[in-house]
Amino acid sequence: MQTSSSRPVAIWVMTGVIMLLIQVILGGITRLTGSGLSITEWNVVTGALPPLNHVQWMDAFDKYRQTPQFRLINADFTLSDYKFIFFWEWFHRLWARLVAVVFVVGLAWLLWKKKMRQDMIRPLIILFLLGALQGAVGWIMVASGLTGDAIYVRPTRLALHFVFALGLIVYAFWFALMLMVPEKALVRVPGANLRRWTIGILAVVFFQLLYGALMAGNKAATVAPTWPTINGEWVPGSLFTQRPLLQDLVGNTITVHFIHRGIAYLLLILVAIWTFISVRMSGVPESFRRLRWLPLFFIVVQIVLGITSLLTSPGIIPNRWVAFDWLAQLHQITGLVFLLTIVGMLYLVRTVRHSEPV
Question: Global pTM?
Answer without folding.
Answer: 0.86
